[in-house]
Amino acid sequence: MVHFWRYSTPFHSDLHIRTLIPFLILWFTWTQRNAAKYRGVPFSTDSIILEVQRHLRTLYAARTLTSTQWKGDLHQAAVMGFIFRQQVPRAPSIIRWHAPSPSWFKLNTDGSSLGNPGLAGAAGIIRDSAGHVHLAYQFELGTGTSVLAELTAVWRGMELALTHGLAPLVWREANGAADHLVKEAASLQLTRVLHHDDITGVLRGILCLDRQGVPYLRQG
After folding, report:
1. How confident is the model at residue 1 (pLDDT cuts 50, 70, 90)?
2. C-alpha angle 206/209/214, rounded to 5°?
3. 0.85 cut: is pTM over it?
4. Residue-wise over 4-19: b if at least 16 C-beta within 10 A, else e?
């Protein structure tokens, strides 16, 4: 039952309403069975439905249920009186890599999680004023929050810069290269340190565009 409910929507996830409801039904069926067996309370399917609804209303009142968990079923949420504020998508931002001053190194970092919490990753890249990559890094963090991932990305970058003698160092948040690295780290759960000769494929193309001053469009 749980399997069919979960995959009855293309928006399925561990916390989607279609995943939660069958577990609530099973739980309250169990409590009703126990009440009937040990306390003589008549078994009632109506009571099970009322308990499930009551529990959902409690979660809604506690702001634990969000519109994301009702994706594809917001009309059903409205029937129960659950109103969610519409999220206005942020406009994409234009990011351009700016080279550091001569003799300086620049650290770009990024951290993200697939859900909050969810599978998280931290990444960064250190380049000189000519755009030459001295090292890049990716760290899988298991389950974590985006804030933890962001802080870990900066900490790991500073640590690696110190270890490899890459100073003086200027820090800047995400750009195209760091964004690409962290998406790989979070989704594939990668942990590795890369040097210039290790970089290939899409990342090499992004770095080439950075050196030419081509802006990167980052989705909001």
Report:
1. low
2. 125
3. no
4. ebbeeeeeeeeebbbb
